[in-house]
Amino acid sequence: MAFVPVLGKVTLLGSSPNGAFPVRFRGDSIMVDLRGLEERIVRNGRVEGHEIEVLRSALLADGKFDRRKADFLVELHKRVQRRTHAFEQFFYNTIKQYILTDGRIGPEETEWIRGMLLHDDKIEDEEREFLRQLKGEAAEVSPEFDELFGECMKYPPEQRTSGG
What we know:
Strand 2 and strand 3 (29-33) form a beta hairpin. The strands form two sheets. Strands 1-3-2 form a three-stranded antiparallel sheet. It has seven helices and five strands. The chain has 164 residues and is mainly alpha-helical.
């Protein structure tokens, strides 16, 4: 199990049927089991507000959001059935900050983005907006990113009903 440190105040007891978040203590630190938290979220079908805060604390606690953490967050995003607006904001902002760490989007980052977005052979409206933000905020983008951007913009917009 991968336990990561959490900084700041964290409410350990959530409102889920399973009770507490999977944690352990090391000295003065609280360690969160990310895989256990992921399984709990997937069982629940969505990420609740307090779980977003635990994720934020656990993933960003040490100030280093690396590929391993980004991959974890992408996999969680794929597995969540009902994504709340708050989780979508957290997800896309965190991934955007990770990708734009050095201000540029190169071929390697582009290939990673491609795998993240096209895993299901469709582009959601939120993914389209994410790509627009990346393109607008990056100081430099590779030809590969421009190609991916153009490819993704050709996908038809989602057809949503008024029920959500």
